Every structure is written in structure tokens, then in C-alpha cells.
């Protein structure tokens, strides 16, 4: 796969020889690849292999050159080495990083994922004050079919759109499938109203405004309005209000409070609080432009995969883990206790991946890209960086939207001498969303050789995302500190401006982190728990110290043990049936409660289910071989049937039952004694008793 590098008019101190050695190819150095040296690009794209072009500035120009080049069939991949490394104060030392970025660009494209489709015919509902709603409608009515729902205020004399009014009962749905419910509670039917203003002039209480709705608090019942509206018949005080509904493809909400309270509203819904005449600014203009474009068929990736059998959400009507529901900013995840699962609405999902980050079992996994593809990308970056002589690699994970813009702005500021720029050991990694990676990939990155993983957040993230990332980082850091690795390996960097980002990145130079002596070479697995085990095994094998166990924070910990109060536990085994990860197990041969700590995900279903409140969670990471072995948490002697001697329960369970039922009127004498019998003997004794009243005797 040929690579084309350019120092952008000699503004970057690129060392072609060292970069070529790291990539295993000869790299001619260009200075004007997009202009007078474009022939090199044309020659490269005539081949069959993909071409890597180390420039994103002129991506559009290169595409045009390719279409004009006869025989150009090679796909082209673009990678930014300028703002991310070549434009910085220490750019001369950034060759290992640049080599890593180029190597990662050569990786195979991620496998395609299923898509979610939307269809919009352009039916737009505008909700808000009538004057502002009409003004917004005027900007899009040539493209969209607009319906207005007034919340009050005067409107224009001529009616260009259908106007509805009344009480809003509900708004649900997404792009192409919004359902709007309302009840017309006012005596004036806006659909029949001709806006002749006769009622406005006739009303002695001035209870009717130019919104053509009656203020019933001011109306005293003269009904002059009804008389003057006889021809149109739009006013009827005796009309029974009936709930109505309709469907729309798009919604523009001009009210002060949005219809959807979640951080990420459904696609196709736009909230733009109404402003005074001439006060709409850039936000309004962008919203109008987006609305005009949203007609037709659209699709997006299906960002997640869900495996119900791994889910620790609910068992037997008891709710355990609900981390994904709590963190979802789009309200796309709901509970389905009857089916022992959660339900993810792909139409509402915005692809943040936060649910997959906090999922302790891996029931929800991120698919855009998948974990193995993300892991290969990180391993390639770090291994190439190390082979090229780089040290103390820091991964800067940022979003492909605001995060990427901030990184590029910092590079530009460094070129102008206004900032230090991205340090030579900081490798930017673009993600669809910064909440899409967590414990498994971060620990894997440290095992691959990263000294630090920094997640850049720019204010576009939901508050619960930050809490979730902090919890994950606290758990990951506790593991590394417990293993004796000194330093701060995980950091949440919050920046909304170039100076803030620059100062924060420069402060990383003052920190030192201890990492494994040898970089791992394992492949990130599709299963989250499998990846965690691979990373933990490598980190523990090279750890400065190895205690028996590491205490972990309770919030967000996917590892731990359970403690059983033996005085309370009757070995009813309800916890075994509730455990979704097979961490708790029974022994068919003997009354024993066994536990495999490696399987425990700390979902809490066992503690919630236990009728004796005998179980408590202990978040920790056990490092001894016993972590993978079944150990007995509680055991007791079996209780033998007093009639046939067959064991049928535990001694503690039968004693507890006898104690609770001994005072009950239905369990006295022989009836209480039958509780000590197995099921077969109980039936035999009941039918053979001579002092029992039978229904056949009646």
C-alpha cells in the first residue's frame, strides 16, 4: 500500500528516511503534492492497492484529480499528520507518532454494520407562538408541508398553513415517524375559522385575540361571537372536545421548554426557543437549513449489538444492573422485566456507545467500529510508535466532531506561534463518540504500551457520560495502582478552547507513569470479559507487585466477590437461579452454595433476590488462582425425610420453615409433622390418615 507524504510547503520537518524505515517502504518527500507534484498522486492511484495520502486539507482537490486521471482505480485514504504532529513546537521529535498515524491508516477498513433506515416526506409540525411559528414556516414552506400548532399570540391575517390549537397531550417518535396527540379544547375551530375578525370585534369582554382562541376566564357568556360567526360556524361552546392525533416527519419546537427532556432528542426533532422579531441568529439559520435538507430516505449505522443471554438486568422479576438505562442520553433503552432483558430502540440511538462502556457483562457491545477493530487500531498505533523509537505514548481519545475541530485548531495555533501544539508523544485518536470506549480498551491500551489514556471532552457530552467515564477510570486506575504501577494512567480532560487544551496537554509532560516492561500482543476479543481477562493477565504478569486482591470502587466495578451470612442463609438457592453469569452455583450432590469469582459482574441480582438478606457485594479483583475456581460459600447437612429417610432439603431450611409455621392453625399436630416429610411421603401420609376430614365424606 503506497504512502504519499508532503511537508506542506516545507512547514513540517518531516524525516522521510525514518518514516520509511518505520513503515518498511521508501517514502519520497513532497512539498506541494496537491499542486505541482500532483503527478505523483496520479501515478499512485493508477495501481490496484489503496493509497494513503498524508493530507486532509486538500481531500476534495485530490478527489477531483483522481476523477480526472485516466486509469485511476485505487481507493484513497487520508490521514492528518499536519495539525496532529507536524505543526507543533516539538514537531522534529514527532516522527514516531507520525509513523504510527500512517501505519494505522493502512489497516483494513472496518467491516460494514447493519443500518437503520428513515423515510421523510417533509411533513413538518411547528409548535409555538403563532407569529414566530408562521415566520419559521415561511422559510421552509417551499420545501416542506408545514402544519402549525399555536400556543398563543397574534398571527398574520392570511393563512398559508393549516393551524391547530388546544391542549398538547403527547409527542413521541423520531424522524419520519412522529406521533402528535392533542385535544382541541377551545370553542373556536381553527380549521373552520376564516379570520374575518368579526368575533374579535363583537366580543364585549375582549376575550378573543388575534390568535383566534377564546380566553374562557374572561368570557361571561354573551355569545355575540357565535352569532357573528353563523356563516362560518367555527364557534361552538357545546362542542365536546375529542382527542386527536396525527403523524409528522419533522418537528420544530419553538416553546421555551422542549418536548423531550433527554440530552439527545430524537433525530428529526429541533428545539429552537422563539425569539423576538429579527432576533434569530446563527442557530435558527442552521436549524432551517437542516430542516430543508431532511426530505427523502436516510440511514445510519446500527451502533450496538445486544446479547440477551449475557444481560444482567433482571431475573425473576428482580432488577439488577440498569447501568445502560441510567446512562443513555437519548432515552433509547428501556426495561423489559417480563422478558428478562433491556430493549434498545435503534431509531432513537445516537451511537454514543456509553451503554456499552458501562455494561459489565458485554451484553451490549459497540459495533461502529467493533471492539476487535478498535483494539487492532490502538495496538498498531502503539507498536509502530515504539518500533520507531517513541517513548511514553499518550493516547488522546477525542470525538470526530468538536474534539477533532479543537485538535486541529490547536495545531493551527501552534503553526502561528500562538500555542505549543500537540506534544510529540501524544497520539490523537478520533472516535465516533468519546463515551464509546471504557475499561476493556483502556487497560488493553496500557498493556499494548500506552503510558496514559486521556479522554478529551468538549462540553457536547451528556452529564451522565462524564460520571460514567469517571467511574470507569477510577476502577481502571485502582487496578493499576493495586498492581504497583505508579502514576496516573487515565485522565478525563475537559477543554472547550485552544488555550485550555494546549495548557492541559503540556501539563502531561510533568507526569510519569509506570507501565509493563513488555508490550502485549494479544488481539482484543469481541467479548468484553474475554478482553479484560487478557489485559489483566498481561498487566499482572509484569506488575511491580501482586497482592492477593485489589479493592475496587463500588460504582462501576465489573469485578468482585459476594459475602454470605451463614447464620441467615438457608441455602434456598434462589440466588443461583437469579445469577445471570453463573458465578453462583449449587451442588447437585450436596447442599452447597459455590461461587466462581471470575464470573461475577457485581450486578446485585443475588442480593436483591435473597429472601434472607444474607448476601452483600464485595467489589474487588482477586489475583490468586482461586479466582477461576469454584469455592464453597456455605453448606449444611441435608434434612432426611422422617418417614423414608430420603434427603429432600437442608436442615436449616426445614428448621426455619418449622419455626415460622409452628404457630399457624393449619400446621398443628400431624400437619406440622408432615413438613418433615418428602413430597411422596407427605401425600401418602395425608391419604392414609384416619383422623383427617376428606371432601369425599361431605
Brief overview, please?
The protein has 698 residues and is α/β, with parallel strands linked by helices. The chain contains 22 helices and 33 strands.
Topology record:
Blueprint (H helix, E strand, L loop, with lengths): L2 E4 L9 H8 L5 E2 L7 H7 L6 E3 L5 H9 L8 E3 L3 H5 L8 H11 L9 E6 L2 E6 L1 H11 L4 E6 L11 E3 L2 E6 L5 E6 L14 H5 L21 H5 L15 E5 L1 E4 L15 E3 L10 H12 L2 E6 L2 E3 L7 E2 L2 E2 L3 H5 L5 E4 L4 E4 L9 H5 L5 E3 L4 H17 L6 E6 L2 H14 L10 E6 L7 H10 L3 E6 L5 H20 L7 E5 L3 H10 L20 H14 L7 E3 L9 E4 L9 H5 L5 E4 L2 E7 L8 H5 L5 E4 L1 E3 L7 E6 L2 E3 L6 E4 H11 L8 H5 L4 H10 L10
Helix pairs in contact: 1-5, 5-12, 12-14, 13-16, 14-17
Q: What features would you describe in this structure?
A:
- By secondary structure, the chain is an alpha/beta fold.
- The chain is 29% helix and 20% strand.
- The chain contains 22 helices and 33 strands.
- A five-stranded parallel β-sheet has the order 8-7-6-12-13, with helices on one face. A four-stranded parallel β-sheet has the order 2-1-3-4, covered by helices on one side. Strands 22-21-23-24 form a four-stranded parallel β-sheet, with helices on both faces.
- Strand 9 and strand 10 form a beta hairpin.
- Helix 13 packs across helix 16.
- The model has no long low-confidence stretch (mean pLDDT 93).
Summed over residues and divided by their number, the pLDDT gives a mean of 93
Helix content: 25-40%
- In terms of DSSP E residues, the strand content is 15-25%
Distance between the termini: 94 Å
Q: What spatial order of strands do you see in the largest sheet?
A: 8-7-6-12-13
**CA gyration radius, whole angstroms:** 34 Å
Shape: flat
**How many DSSP-defined strands?**
33
Regions with little confidence, pLDDT below 50 for 5+ residues: none
Q: What structural class do you assign from the helix and strand content?
A: alpha/beta
**Biggest sheet details:** 5 strands, parallel
Count of helical stretches: 22
Amino acid at each position: 500500500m503506497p504512502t504519499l507524504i508532503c511537508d506542506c510547503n516545507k512547514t513540517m520537518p518531516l524525516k522521510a528516511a525514518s518514516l520509511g524505515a518505520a513503515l518498511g517502504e521508501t517514502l519520497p518527500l513532497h512539498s506541494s503534492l496537491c499542486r505541482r507534484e500532483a503527478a505523483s498522486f496520479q501515478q499512485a492511484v493508477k495501481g490496484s492497492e489503496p493509497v494513503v495520502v498524508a493530507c486532509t486539507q486538500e481531500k476534495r482537490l485530490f478527489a477531483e484529480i483522481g476523477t480526472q486521471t485516466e486509469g485511476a482505480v485505487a481507493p484513497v485514504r487520508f490521514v492528518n499528520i499536519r495539525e496532529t504532529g507536524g505543526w507543533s513546537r516539538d514537531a522534529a521529535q514527532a516522527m514516531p507518532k507520525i509513523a504510527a498515524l500512517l501505519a494505522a491508516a493502512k489497516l483494513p477498513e472496518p467491516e460494514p454494520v447493519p443500518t437503520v433506515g428513515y423515510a421523510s416526506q417533509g411533513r413538518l409540525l411547528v409548535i409555538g407562538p403563532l407569529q414566530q411559528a408562521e415566520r419559521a414556516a415561511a422559510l421552509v414552506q417551499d420545501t416542506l408541508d408545514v402544519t402549525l400548532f399555536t400556543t398563543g399570540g397574534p398571527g398574520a391575517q392570511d393563512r398559508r398553513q393549516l393551524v391547530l390549537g388546544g391542549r398538547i397531550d403527547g409527542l413521541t417518535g423520531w424522524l419520519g415517524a412522529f406521533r402528535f396527540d392533542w385535544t382541541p379544547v377551545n370553542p373556536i375551530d381553527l380549521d373552520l375559522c376564516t379570520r374575518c375578525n368579526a368575533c374579535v370585534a363583537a366580543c364585549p369582554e375582549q376575550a378573543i385575540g388575534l390568535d383566534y382562541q377564546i380566553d374562557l376566564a374572561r368570557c361571561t357568556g354573551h355569545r355575540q361571537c357565535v352569532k357573528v360567526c353563523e356563516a362560518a360556524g367555527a364557534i361552538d361552546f357545546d362542542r365536546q372536545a375529542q382527542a386527536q392525533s396525527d403523524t409528522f416527519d419533522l418537528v420544530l419546537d419553538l416553546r421555551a421548554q422542549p418536548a423531550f427532556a433527554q440530552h439527545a432528542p430524537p433525530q428529526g426533532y429541533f428545539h429552537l426557543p422563539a425569539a423576538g422579531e429579527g432576533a434569530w441568529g446563527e442557530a435558527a439559520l442552521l436549524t432551517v437549513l437542516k430542516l430543508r435538507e431532511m426530505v427523502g430516505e436516510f440511514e445510519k449505522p446500527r451502533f450496538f449489538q445486544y446479547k440477551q443471554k449475557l444481560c444482567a438486568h433482571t431475573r425473576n422479576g428482580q432488577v439488577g444492573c440498569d447501568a445502560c438505562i441510567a446512562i443513555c442520553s437519548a432515552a433509547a433503552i428501556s426495561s423489559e422485566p417480563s422478558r428478562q432483558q433491556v430493549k434498545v430502540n435503534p431509531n432513537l440511538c445516537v451511537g454514543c456507545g456509553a451503554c456499552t462502556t458501562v455494561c459489565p457483562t458485554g451484553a451490549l457491545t459497540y459495533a461502529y467500529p467493533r471492539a476487535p477493530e478498535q483494539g487492532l487500531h490502538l495496538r498498531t498505533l502503539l507498536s509502530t510508535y515504539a518500533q520507531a523509537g517513541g517513548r511514553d505514548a499518550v493516547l488522546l481519545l477525542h470525538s470526530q466532531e468538536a474534539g477533532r475541530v479543537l485538535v486541529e485548531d490547536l495545531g493551527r495555533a501552534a503553526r502561528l506561534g500562538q500555542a505549543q501544539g500537540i506534544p510529540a508523544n501524544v497520539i490523537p485518536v478520533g472516535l465516533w463518540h468519546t463515551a464509546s470506549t471504557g475499561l476493556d480498551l483502556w487497560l488493553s491500551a496500557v498493556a499494548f504500551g500506552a503510558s496514559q489514556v486521556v479522554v478529551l471532552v468538549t462540553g457536547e457530552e451528556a452529564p451522565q457520560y462524564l460520571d460514567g467515564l469517571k467511574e470507569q477510570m477510577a476502577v481502571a486506575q485502582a487496578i493499576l495502582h493495586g498492581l504497583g504501577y505508579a502514576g496516573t494512567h487515565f485522565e478525563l480532560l475537559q477543554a472547550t478552547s485552544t488555550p485550555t487544551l494546549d495548557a492541559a496537554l503540556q501539563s502531561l509532560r510533568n507526569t510519569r507513569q509506570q507501565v509493563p516492561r513488555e508490550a502485549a500482543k494479544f488481539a482484543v476479543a469481541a467479548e468484553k470479559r474475554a478482553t479484560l481477562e487478557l489485559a489483566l493477565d498481561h498487566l499482572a504478569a509484569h506488575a511491580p507487585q501482586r497482592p492477593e486482591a485489589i479493592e475496587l470502587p463500588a460504582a462501576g466495578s465489573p469485578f468482585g466477590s459476594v459475602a454470605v451470612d451463614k447464620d441467615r442463609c438457608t441455602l434456598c438457592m434462589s440466588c443461583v437461579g437469579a445469577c445471570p453469569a453463573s458465578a453462583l452455583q449449587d451442588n447437585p450432590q450436596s447442599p452447597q452454595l459455590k461461587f466462581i469469582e471470575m464470573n461475577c459482574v457485581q450486578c446485585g441480582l443475588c442480593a436483591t433476590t435473597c429472601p434472607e438478606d444474607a448476601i452483600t457485594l464485595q467489589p474487588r479483583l482477586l489475583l490468586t488462582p482461586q479466582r477461576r475456581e469454584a469455592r464453597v460459600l456455605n453448606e449444611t447437612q441435608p434434612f432426611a425425610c422422617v418417614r423414608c429417610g430420603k434427603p429432600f432439603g437442608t436442615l436449616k431450611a426445614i428448621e426455619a420453615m418449622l419455626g415460622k409455621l409452628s404457630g399457624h392453625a393449619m400446621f398443628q399436630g400431624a400437619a406440622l409433622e408432615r413438613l418433615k416429610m418428602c413430597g411422596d411421603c407427605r401425600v401418602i401420609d395425608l391419604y392414609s390418615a384416619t383422623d383427617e376430614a376428606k371432601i369425599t365424606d361431605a
